[in-house]
Amino acid sequence: MSPNQNPLHEETRAAWEVNAEVWDKRMGDDGNDFFNILCWPTLVSFLSPQPAAHILDIACGNGLTTRRLAELGCKVTAFDFSANLIEYAKQRLANYQSQITLRVIDATNEEQLLSLGKSQFDSALSNMALFDMADIEPLFRTLPKLLKPGGTFVFSITHPCFNNASSAHVVEEIDNNGEMQISYAIKTTRYMTPYSTRGLALRNQPMPQVYFERPLQYYFNLAFQHGFVLDGFEERAFPPETPQTHPLGWGGNFSEIPAAIVIRMRLQS
What we know:
Number of strands: 11
Distance between the termini: 26 Å
Shape: globular
Radius of gyration: 19 Å
Structural class: alpha/beta
Helix content: 25-40%
Number of helices: 7
Order of helices and strands: HHEHEHEHEHEEEEEHEE
Oligomer: single chain
């Protein structure tokens, strides 16, 4: 239960502290297309949150998912390891103080996670955050202790196969019997072996963040080892009519290639 020993862990925290202001301004109260089109509809469907349910929001950032859950009548305990992001979340969630508890907690530190209390939560949520964590094993090891029997863990991540840090967007124009046609594809050079690299979630963020890329089997096997079963899985791509407005180039042109996945794990009875 010692603090994370990965040397990149503190660099990751430092990046989020520095980038917190830019991230808060960009995401605001409403989020972006990536969140609203790809993530939230499936997240809320998989969670199926009931009024008064107690949900743990892991790596909550500026409180975007926290607020939406509170609006559905849920009680939410939300945390992030960035103190700056939690301060922005407090400002944005001031009207929901009776429903929300915000804390600065490191998801890679089992002792801090256990301070949330055993068997306290009906479900847990993590939106687009697991690939920002240097070590996710403490979280998967601790969640069965934090969740009530039969509780669920719902998380979204960029698609490890098609939207990892090695992926490149490819646009090709060909002359097909006198008709010029454009095709859109993804070129991926790394997938099977976990690795880390620095990158930009937002083009104007002050400091690159560290991405920790892992194949799907890593997430699944880790969950299975700690008593979870898979009972929800959806790959999410932008519909063809969506404008290509995402800063990383995702849009309707890539409607056959999923940019994100949403997964629901349930504790075995």
